[in-house]
Write a structure and sequence with these properties.
This protein is elongated. Strands 1, 2, 3, 4, 5, 6 and 7 form a 7-stranded mixed β-sheet that branches. The two termini are 13 Å apart. The chain is built from 6 helices and 7 strands, in the order βαβαββαββαβαα. The chain has one domain: Maf protein. With 196 residues, the chain is of the alpha/beta class.
Amino acid sequence: MPRFILASASPRRLALLRQIGIEPDLIEPADVDETPRPGELPRRYAARLAAEKARVAAARHRGGRDTIVLGADTVVACGRRLLPKAAAAAAARACLELLSGRGHTVYGGLCVIDAEGRAHDRLVATKVKFKRLEDREIDDYLASGEWRDTAGAYVIQGRAAAFVRAINGSYSNVVGLPLYETATLLGGLGLRGSSS
């Protein structure tokens, strides 16, 4: 089996990989500048960050034979507008008020770098529709603290599941990693889960 490096500190991504029987040999978060470029669309932004994270981690292990590196990024967008990973309650409230009663798109960028240094990229888009949120619901959600450091200020596998009227596409992508696409990419390079 190839040596597998996950270029992410996200506990959600690690849990999702374990769900399909894949355990990284090394977790090595890649520190990259996550500032969007002028005029950069959300889908391009997600793809670029995933690729940059994978390349940074792969560069640290250049020359390592049979090493596969996975970089990923999750972006929430309302139209062309990127929603932040909210660090403060005011920013989280603004995100939730914007999403209330509307549809939005969650983009999951994936980049796998193989042992030869070749990049294999995928971009997954999931459409999510929120119900109209009452002020009390937003207040309660903010009080839970669940929104901290999450794209779009919500966690679909937590309390915010009650906000979702409809979802079209990969659920695991909204959680943090599109599992079908990830398993397909890794499997094509000889890395399969223990249940495969």
